[in-house]
Amino acid sequence: MVRRAVALAALLPCITMAAPTVLIPPALASSPGSPDLAAAEGTLASAGRATGAQRQRVQVGLAFTQVSPKTLHGNSRIEISGIAKNRTEGQLAGLTIRMRYSAQPITSRGQLDQFSSGQTNQLPNVTQPQPLTNVAAPGSTQNWSFQATPKSLRLSAPNGTPGVYPVGVEVLNPAQQVVGGLTTFLTFMPQKRLFKPVSISWVWPLIDRMHRTTDGAFFDDQLTKDMAPGGRLNRLVSAAGTTATPVTWAVDPALMDDAQRIASDPYVVQPFGAKKGAEKEKSPVAARWLSDLKTASKGDPYFTVPYGDPDVVALVRHKTPRDIAVALDARNTGVATQALGRPADAHVAWPPSGAAGPGTLEQLAEHQLKRGGSFLMSSSQFQNPASGTPPNATTALQTKRGVEKTVLYDEKLSQIVSQGSRSAAGGVLTEQRFLAETAMIAAETPNLARSVVVAPDRRWDPAPGLAERLLTYTKDAAWLRETPLKKIEAAQPQARVFNGLPDSNVWHELGDAHLAQTHDIAKRASAFRAVMTGDIKISYERALLRLDSVAWRTMPARAKAARDALSKQVKDDMGSVRIVHPKNGRVLMGGSSGRLPVLIENRLSHQSVTVRLVATSENTAKLRLGQLPPEEAVIELRPGQRAQRWIPAKASGNGNFHVYLELWVPSSNPNSDRNTKGRRFGDVQTITVRTTGYGRLALLITGGGLAVLFVGVGVRAIRARRRRKAEAAGDGSTGMGSAGTAEQGYGYAGPGFAGPGLPGVEFPAAPGAGLPATGAGAGLPGSGPQSPGQPAGAPAEPGPAPRPAGPGSAPTGPAPAGPAPAGPAASDVPGAAGVPEPAADGKAGRRGRHSAADPRGRDGD
To answer: Transmembrane: is it a keyword of this entry (predicted)?
Structure first.
C-alpha cells in the first residue's frame, strides 16, 4: 500500500482535479489529431482515476509546454506557456483562463504532494483572465501564455534557502466554474545561500525486455528501433555521453548479448506464431550503438544485474535459487565485459523494484556481493531513522553472511522521474517536480549534509531531451552536488529498520504456472545436455534465464508464447537423438530364442552424444530379454551417425508382446550431474514382438518346398495349355514327341511288326518266308532307332508307350502261344524297297506307313 501511494503521488503532478490532462508541445497545437497528442492523452489517462462527478466537470485539458527559467532569481522574467483542448463533444463558449499561485513557499516534501494532488483553488492568488475563444468547438486547441516576475508574484527565498512555490492555471466557463486546471512548481534561489548542497548520484539503467527466447531467432526487431537515433536506448546513451554528470551504469548482460548478436552476424526474426522467419543482415545500427556506449560510459563505473534481469524474488519463493547463481556466473555476465571492453568496476545488487525479502538478499549477497559492494534498494523498504534525523541514502542490512552495506534510492523522486515523462509535455512537469523535490530536500535541513540517489525505472523511456536535461540540472542546480555512487556507499550508514517484503508483492511477481513450466523445460534441457559429449555446441542456459526475466511480469501473453517456443525447440532437438521405430511397429522372432534389432540415430548436425540403451519386456513370463554388454549398451554417436544393437530375447510361448525401448543418460558422462544420472532421455518407444514356434531354418526349408511345389504346378499347367491348343488346331501333335497312331511305325511294337536287332523283343520268322537283307533290321546296330544326337551303339531310349490300335488293327502285346501266323508280304513291311528310312525327329512312324506314290508321304502332313 505504501508503494502504491507513493507511485500515485508521483503521477499526480500531471493531473489536476484528478483528471487526465492533454500535454503537447506548441508546434503540435494546430494538429488536434496528432499521434503525439493521442499518446499524451493515453499516458496521462492511465495515470489516475477520478470520480464520475469530477470527470464530468473537467471539460478542458491543459498542458505545460514551457516553464522558464528553471531556477528563479530576483531579476528573472517568468514565462509559463501551454495549450488547452476542448475534451467534450459539444460547444464551449465564453471560456477564460487565468493563473493561480501562492506567495508562501512550501515547507516540506509532504506539502509538495498535497499541492500536486489537490485542486488549483487551493492557491489563493489569481491573475487577470484571458479569453479562450478558439477552443469552443469539440476537439479544438489553443495556445496560451503568461508572463510575470518574481516581484510581481511576491516570490522570495526566506532564510537564504531555496524557495519552492506552487503555481497553476485554470479554465473557467461563463458561470465562473472551473472546467480544467493544472499545477506545477517554481524554484527560487536566493542570492545569499545559507544551506548545504545535497549530494546526488544517478543509477543509469541500461536494461531492456527480452527479444528472443531461443538463441537462434528473435521474436521481434524492436532492438534496432530502440538503438537507432531517437530510440529509447539511443536516448539514454546519448544523454549520458553528452553531459559531464557522473552516473553509475546498471547493465543487463542479456541486452549486450542481443546487441552483439545482431551487430556481428545476420540474424532471423520470427514473430510468435509465424511458420517462417525473416532473414536480416547484421545491423550497423547496433554496431554503432555499442561503439557509442563504450565512449559514453568511459570513465563511469558500471555493474551488471544477473543475466536477463531475472525475477530473483519469485525464484527464491519457488525454491529455485540455482538460476540466480547461473545468471550471475562469469560466463554469462562476462558478455558485458566483452561489449564494454572492461570488467565491471562496481559491485551492486539491485533486486527488481528495489524490493526483496531476507531469502533473496542472502542469495544476492552470496553470489553477487562475495567480493564486497552493497545492495541497492528502494527507500520504501525501510523506515526513517528513529531519532528523527532526516534520512540519507546509506544504511546497513543484516544477513546470514553478516552486515551488508545498503544504498537506498529515493522512491518518490525515482518515480517522478520515471512516470509520466514519455511525452514532451509530461517531461516539462517532470523537470519542474524534480527541481522542486531536490530543492526541498536542501531546504528542509539546511544545516545538514544530505545524500540522495535517483534510480529510474529499469526500462525508463524518457521524452526526447529529458534525460539529458535532468543530468544538466543535476550539475547546474546550486542546491545539488553530483557525487559518485561509490562515495555515497562509503558514507557512515544510518540505523534504519528494514520493513521486509510485503505479502502483496506476490501479486506482482512471475506466476506459479510460468515458473513451473519454465522449470519443466529446464529439466528436459538438463537431460539433453547430459548426453552431449565433446565440444558443447547446443545450450539452453541463456534461453532459460531469459524466461526468468522480470520483464514478463507485465506481458503474460508474450510470456506464454515464449515458453511454448522454447519448449518446442528443446523437444525438436531432443527428438534428433532417437530410436528409429519400425514402420509397422512389429518385430518377428522365429523360434523360442533370438535377437531383436534396435537402430539408434543422431540427426544433430554439430553435436556428438552418448546414450545408454535400455529394453524392458512388458510380460517377462512370456518374453525375457537379456542384457547387453556394458560396452554395447553405451552408444557413442557422432553427428549424423547411426548404430544398431541386437538384444537377446527368449520366448516361452507364441503371441504378441510389447517391449519398451528407452535411451538413458549414461552415468559416466561428465556433463551429467547427480540430478540427471540414471534419468531417461526422450520418450519411450514401444515395439510389438511376435514370437512363433518355427525356427529360422525350418521356415526357410518350408518356404523352399512350397516354392518348388508352386513352380511344378505352374509348369504342368503351361504344358497342358499348349497341348489343348495343339489338339484344337487338328495336327495331332501334343507337343510331347511323336504323335502315336493306331498304325505303328518304328519304335512301336505291334502285330506282324518284328525284326532282328530290337532289344528285348523276339521276332519269330513266318513259315516259308524270310526277311530280305534290306528288311526292318538291316543296317541297325543291334538296337532300335536312335534319338537325335545319340551315339552309335548306345542303347535306344525307351519311347512312349504305344497308343491303342484303331479299329481293325491287331492288339498289341506279347504274341499268343502256339504257331505264329503267317507274316505279312514283303511289300507291306516297313523298310522294304521303296520305303524311306525312319527320321530322327520323332515322326518316322507316320511317314513310314505311306507308299511312295502317296504325295503326303513326303512331309507326313
So the answer is: yes
CB 196 within 8 A of CB 442: yes
Length reported for the chain:
861
Residues contacting 636, CB < 8 A, separation 6+: 533, 608, 609, 610
> Which of these, 42, 45, 36, 106, lies nearest to 65 by C-alpha position?
36
What's the CA dihedral at 351, 355, 358, 361 to 10 degrees? 20
Q: How far apart are CA 834 and CA 844, in angstroms?
A: 15
User: Terminus-to-terminus CA distance in the chain, angstroms?
Assistant: 125
**Which among 198, 164, 161 has a CA at the least distance from the CA of 452?**
198
**Cβ atoms 42, 445 nearer than 8 A:** no
pLDDT(135) > 50:
yes
**Residue 114, helix vs strand vs coil:** helix
Say yes or no to pLDDT of 166 above 90. yes
pLDDT score, position 161: 92
**DSSP 3-state helix, strand, coil percentages of the chain (rounded to 5)?**
35, 20, 45
3-class secondary structure per residue, 408-421: EECHHHHHHHHCCC
| The pLDDT value given to residue 461 | 96
Cβ-proximal residues to 280 (8 Å cutoff; 6+ apart), any chain = 221, 262, 266, 267, 268, 269
Q: What is the pLDDT of residue 506?
A: 87
Band of pLDDT at residue 782, cut at 50, 70 and 90: very low
Tens of pLDDT, residues 541-555? 999 999 999 999 999
What long-range pairs does 365-371 form, CB within 8 A, spacing at least 24?
365/399, 365/401, 365/404, 366/401, 367/324, 367/325, 367/328, 368/306, 368/328, 369/404, 371/347
* Per-residue confidence (pLDDT) for residue 138, from 0 to 100: 94
